[in-house]
Amino acid sequence: MKLTKRKEGRVILFVPDPEKYGSKYDAPVFYNPVMEEDRDISVSLLKAKWEGREYRVADCLSGTGARAVRYAVEAGAEVYANDHNPLAVELMKKNAEINNANVRVFRRDARVFLLEERPFDVVDIDPFGSPISFLPAAVNSLKGKGSMIFATATDTGALSATFPEVLLRRYGVRGVKTSFYPELGVRNLAYAVLREGMKEDACLLPFYAYARQHYYRVFAVHVGWAKTSSRALKRDVGYYEYCQKCDYRKRVPYAGLSWQEKCPVCGSRLEIIGPTYLGKLWEDLDFKDPYIDLHYLAKKNKICAPKTEKVIRALREKGFRAVKSPFTGKGILTNAGFEEVREIVLSLS
Predict the structure, then answer these.
(1) Peptide bond before 119: cis, by omega within 30 degrees of 0?
(2) Which helix (H) or strand (E) holds 310?
(3) What is the DSSP string of 219-281?
(4) What are the boundaries of each domain within the chain?
(5) With CB atoms counted within 10 Å of each terminal CB, which end of the chain scores lower, N or C?
């Protein structure tokens, strides 16, 4: 295998030489330099949550071991790194050795690895495509309350309902294309993690999540058992009523589903999306409704989109909370209802 040396974070990595193999998908071991920022974020979250404590992390689809080595060196974790590819296993060992990293290396099916080497404080799942087949083993390999699952999905077309049949088949969610599709995709992924935990009476709620380039990522923490799961089911799981004509949307808790067949804004037929995760996606942003894309809303009403800052200021003057959406610079998060936002956008155009 032709290798090149690369610095990432505080570690040195040997990775397949892109000049020799061309596409990263053609290399004998997968390494994606674009994911360096994602690994930066993951390291920071681990340090914030676990610094000063001993903890075990499972990187169950490790590839070159880039994430595993960085978790060990930069976040002080005891890392168990696994990959089924024998070339990956040798490269992981090399990268762990040159960085003097506390990494144990395995070559097994990821699901077998998780169950045989459990328990873990943190399980990181970063597969090609959907993480759905790895979630049962991940949940069953956790230590218990306080432990975490970090899950990545690259099947964004399914999760965002670009391919609604695949979303229904793979995740059990009915969906349609929306203006807030990246957020919907992340919420559907969070629901998949939460649902899998609930099967074992474990409540796994997201504390951080994002959509970036070709993937969605959710960081979830085990916050309790059966009673907590039941409360989360009532509070955080449900549906969206959504109008594809005017962009109206409304959260409907699972326990109170009552489908309005006509949109209260434009009278068109409403679509039901769900079940999905309706709760908070971030610890520091207490907004549960999906973002409103101001450009999309303006286009639907055949007007020029007002500046995001003006809409936020107008909402705050009316007593609502409002911030820019982490998903797009054209969107806002607010506790105001759709009708209130639409009225302000129309008045500012």
Answers:
(1) yes
(2) helix 308-317
(3) EEEEEESHHHHHHHHHHHEEEEEE-TTT--EEEEEGGG----SB-TTT-PBPEEEEEEE-S-S
(4) 3-233, 291-349
(5) C
Give the integer Cα–Cα distance in Å for 202 and 199: 7
In whole angstroms, how far apart are CA 27 and each of 8, 12, 17, 241, 324? 19, 19, 8, 45, 39
Domains 3-233 and 291-349 are alike in CATH topology: no
My answer on whether omega of the bond before 326 falls inside 30° of 0, hence cis, is no
CA-nearest of 144, 147, 231, 157 to 188 is 157
Phi, psi of 224 (to 5 degrees): 165, -175
Q: Which residues contact 167 (CB under 8 A, 6 or more apart)?
A: 158, 159, 161, 173, 174, 175, 188
Rounded to a whole number of angstroms, the distance between the first and last alpha carbons of the chain is: 59
- Report phi then psi at 329, rounded to 5: -70, -15
Sign of CA dihedral 306, 311, 312, 317: positive
For residue range 108-148, what is the model confidence (pLDDT) as tens digits?
Answer: 999 999 999 999 999 999 999 999 999 999 999 999 999 99
DSSP 155-212: -HHHHTTSSHHHHHHHH--B----TTHHHHHHHHHHHHHHHHHHTTT-EEEEEEEEEE
pLDDT of residue 258: 66
pLDDT band at 257; cut points 50, 70, 90: low
| Superfamily (CATH) of domain 3-233 | Vaccinia Virus protein VP39 (3.40.50.150)
Give the position of tokens 């990522």.
217
Closest CA to 339 of 245, 250, 238, 241: 250
Cα separation, 242 vs 207, whole angstroms: 26
Tokens, residue 167: 């979303």
- Measure the CA–CA gap between 311 and 314, rounded to whole angstroms: 5
- 262-286 confidence digits (pLDDT tens): 999 999 999 999 999 999 999 888 8
CATH 3.30.56.70 for domain 291-349? yes
